[in-house]
Amino acid sequence: xxxxxxxxxxxxxxxxxxxxxxxxxxxxxxxxxxxxxxxxxxxxxxxxxxxxxxxxxxxxxxxxxxxxxxxxxxxxxxxxxxxxxxxxxxxxxxxxxxxxxxxxxxxxxxxxxxxxxxxxxxxxxxxx
Amino acid sequence: xxxxxxxxxxxxxxxxxxxxxxxxxxxxxxxxxxxxxxxxxxxxxxxxxxxxxxxxxxxxxxxxxxxxxxxxxxxxxxxxxxxxxxxxxxxxxxxxxxxxxxxxxxxxxxxxxxxxxxxxxxxxxxxxxxxxxxxxxxxxxxxxxxxxxxxxxxxxxxxxxxxxxxxxxxxxxxxxxxxxxxxxxxxxxxxxxxxxxxxxxxxxxxxxxxxxxxxxxxxxxxxxxxxxxxxxxxxxxxxxxxxxxxxxxxxxxxxxxxxxxxxxxxxxxxxxxxxxxxxxxxxxxxxxxxxxxxxxxxxxxxxxxxxxxxxxxxxxxxxxxxxxxxxxxxxxxxxxxxxxxxxxxxxxxxxxxxxxxxxxxxx
Lengths: 128, 363
Hints:
By secondary structure, chain A is an alpha+beta fold. Chain A has four helices and nine strands; from the N terminus they run βββαβββββααβα. Chain B is 21% helix and 34% strand. In chain B, helix 2 (34-43) packs across helix 8 (223-233). The A-B interface holds A 36-37, 39-40, 58, 60, 62-65, 87, 91 and B 18, 29-30, 33-36, 224, 228, 288-291, 293, 312-313, 315, 344.
């Protein structure tokens, strides 16, 4: 499974790329592989507030519906509208074109509850 | 309980299939991906491991031995070489299993049944039949070859016997020589495409699997694609879309029941035909890419009128499709319904099966 360095990860298999005060959020390669073919993505609206570890979006695959949880709290400032037409981007490029939302981060300290790439890799070894 | 393994289990592992439990078996759900396998079946040809399904051989006169009264299929008028889809019902008309019966010879039948209900099917048959029953499921491998070019694929393997295959009509079977074995090939399937089901001894299953996949036009497909393919055709799945609390009338399948003969459950079915039913099978198409799913509730306005039994994203139609049961008073083609679960709300329109109308089934 691809786990890029420089991102932070959750136990529910989301990633966040933090730059200054904003964070880009998506689901990991492990998550997209476990979901299988993604067929629909439900995204929040710009301006919505999301809370750390609470569901803020959902992904439907052929097999199931899964909630997506916020890595940190914040306000939605951008959503990936490309996913509405091409949800398969999540399968194809989970860390690039398959990103889901960008948020303005409320509290940088929440980062402390997330895993680094090396920690997440270890975590994946434990569940496989 | 340990899961059972088909003779092709090692092949699936080598192909890095996603393997999951299904009806007590470890089965391949997908190889490359459900949508890719689905589309390949519609365009070219897919190979499915369906060894989990059960095969029962029944010998003897169907009237004297009671098989005719256990099945909804008319066996007395059936010709050797014909397959027929039907049901085994309980006294209340509920479906014990749906199955395909093959007339192998005069007074010799093969029932092909679902994996989950196999044990109860066999018990039901042993209770009612006065003739011999042999469960050959353990020794029998079943491989499904499905897709518009499946006849071309088999042509390469059959040599001079190809004429027999060319003549094979929908829902008929014959015996063929492959790998030096005498095997049954029937023109049947669960995908809506032209296709065949091959029955071979368990020991030769891996060789047949490899032989079929040696044609590059053939790719393996798992139970995931099998499910989306059958759903696009509106074919019910036993245990999900019908069970012992559902009659064939409620399931909208009265046309495959022969009412001219006597069978267990018939009086209940006739009563339902006359007096009506409390729930009616319904197919519906979502107005979005969202998929209705098993156990979602069905509403009209704010009134709950039924429930979803199966649903999926349809790769061919690029939208959600589903089936379920509703209060018959609300059954109108074109009527709008809503399927709901928690905060998920999916608008849909009642339609007729099949959802997918361009299948090569009868080509």
